[in-house]
Amino acid sequence: MRQRIVSGARELGQLLTGAAIGLPAPFLLALILVSVPATLAAGLGVLLFAVAIGLSRRLADLERRRAAEVLGRPVHSPYAPLPTGLPARVRTVIGDPATWRDLAWLLCQFVVGVISVTLALGLWLAAAQCLVAPLLWAFLPDPTSFDPMVLEITGRSGPLAWLLVPVGAGLVVLAYRLPRHLITGQARLASSLLGPTSAAELSTRVEQLTATRAAAVDASATELRRVERDLHDGAQVRLIAVTMNLGMAEDVIDADPAGAKALMAEAKASAGAALTELRDLVRGIHPPVLADRGLAGAVQALALDSSIPVELDLRLDRRLAAPVESAAYFAIAESLANAIRHSEAHRVQITIAGGGLTLQITVRDDGHGGADPSRGTGLRGIQRRLSAFDGTFRLTSPPGGPTVLNMELPCAS
Amino acid sequence: MRVLIAEDQLLLRDGLTRMLTANGFDVVAAVDEGPRLTETLVSLRPDIAVLDVRLPPTFTDEGLRAAIAARRQVPGLPVLILSQYVERLYARELLSDRAGAVGYLLKDRVGDVRQFIESIRQVATGGTVMDPEVVAQLLNHRDTLSTLTPRERDVLRLMAEGRSNAAIAANMIITEKSVSNHINTLFAKLGLPPAGGDHRRVLAVLTYLDR
């Protein structure tokens, strides 16, 4: 009950704030209207315009945050980036559709805000009057100049006053329920007028995709180059040595069996080294255990090989698409390596939850914190790997620790 | 001694068959895929099975799974797992039934024929043989080993790989008696119970290292 009263009161408060946000609308619109002739007359109008736009953007930003909270999804601000220099700025602002959508929203919010508050408060007032109608009727038998409305409606009839009590109860329910719908409605209005248009959203998305694709292509080209160099300078050279040693052994085996034996032993050692190098290379490209056991198994293997204790909480009982598995694995491996190498952690916790449409990974260590993604390539590498799959990456690492890395990857299969 | 080989690559399957036959083994079956491998193992009951981890059709870890499944039905069925790479995770799974008679080696080790044959015989007689790389991985992560002298560490490493006292003595060029002295002190330092047979000793060490 107490909780209901609190949430009801909070909703009324939100409606009041909404109305307050809309209130400056006529003033701002007037300011903008005035600024046009004022500019023609003297330069002062530009200043008025800037003030009005600045205020409206600030109100819009406030409402974006409120709407995001209500709707549970972000409402991004769609403004075109501002150039330097006042005239260019003014031109950009005037040409930006977001400016005019802001003003349209402000006008709507003014009307909607005032109506919502009136409705919500009015309903409570009406409900209260209906509930106490019999009392009012008993205490105020004669008409006064400040008569409550209920008494006028019922014409001071006793039975009618009693009839209003259940009506009042119904009104209480309505007054309690309505505000949250009004709030959601306002948030929807804000999100449709203040958020980016679908065209703008698409173009942002295209830009983002172009960037992540370029990064992914870059990364895979670098990776291929590394593999090529490793093979060229490593295993290939060793196999050449093997062939050479065996050839020499073949030549001398009759004349100098002991020498041939030594050459063959050397060949065997080179072949062994080539195998080791190939194995390390394969592990770096796609760890075999990942192919065998999927993400959960590979992370278990990673934890076993770690030099500090790793606690695992793996809630993933299915195989994911191979590229997603690989991206997630390398992101985790890199995070773990970072924790060991840079943060002097004594303990790492890795959580993987992949029940729904996203794969959620948390890597937490008890090290000294202060990790900064702008320094060092490790964290940026993780970001690049994840962004190729529309994944996100959030790092909190206050000085003194702990460092917590949250990663999310879409994994609908 | 009757051997079963499961290896999908023709070159290696033939090579292994040839090598084992030349060393007096009787190759009773050379299998090239995973399905029904467990059944074959259980019905043939070879004295030793040499299995590739990765086999058709899925090319993941069916060799290992088949070995574990077969050993569940026939406890202590000797298996030697060969792989292009070694994982501690897999070593742990193989050792977890504590029945002994298991080996886990890199394929590279077939290059050293004498040592490889020795490993097979050891597993066939109930011993435990772990690849030096697995042992190295395990040793790397134990701080408590700092109390051991370098000699004792060498003994521990060779013991974990499954070598007998005689083999350790030969490898380190010391007498068997000093090997057993080293073993006694290091078991005492690590708080391990004095163990009897070779494979129980190896298991004790591996369990200690894998904690």
Attribute tags:
heterodimer; A: 413 residues; alpha+beta; 14 helices; 5 strands; 8% strand; elongated; B: alpha/beta; Rossmann fold; Arc Repressor Mutant, subunit A; 6 strands; 14% strand; globular
> Compute the gyration radius of chain A: what is it?
35 Å
User: Helicity level of chain B, as a percent range?
Assistant: 40-55%
Oligomer: heterodimer
The termini of chain A sit apart by 44 Å
Sum up the overall morphology of chain A in one term: elongated
CATH architecture of the largest domain in chain B: 3-Layer(aba) Sandwich
E-strand count of chain A: 5
Into which percentage range does the β-strand content of chain B fall? 5-15%
Please give the largest β-sheet of chain A. Answer: 5 strands, mixed
What report would you give on this structure?
The complex is a heterodimer of chains A (413) and B (211). With 413 residues, chain A is α+β, with helices and mostly antiparallel strands. Chain A has 14 helices and five strands. Chain A has a five-stranded mixed β-sheet with strand order 1-2-3-5-4, covered by helices on one side. In chain A, a hairpin with a 6-residue loop joins strand 4 (392-396) and strand 5. In chain A, helix 1 (2-22) crosses helix 5 and helix 6 (133-139) crosses helix 8. Chain A starts with a helix and ends with a strand. The mean pLDDT of chain A is 84. The mean pLDDT of chain B is 88. Chain B contains ten helices and six strands, in the order βαβαβαβαβαβααααα. The termini of chain B are far apart. The radius of gyration of chain B is 17 Å and the shape is globular. Chain B has a six-stranded parallel β-sheet, with helices on both faces. Chain B has two domains: 2-130, 3-Layer(aba) Sandwich (Rossmann fold); 142-209, Arc Repressor Mutant, subunit A (Orthogonal Bundle). In chain B, 51% of the residues lie in helices and 14% in strands. With 211 residues, chain B is of the alpha/beta class. Classes of the chains: A alpha+beta (413), B alpha/beta (211). The interface between A and B is medium-sized, with 20 and 20 residues.
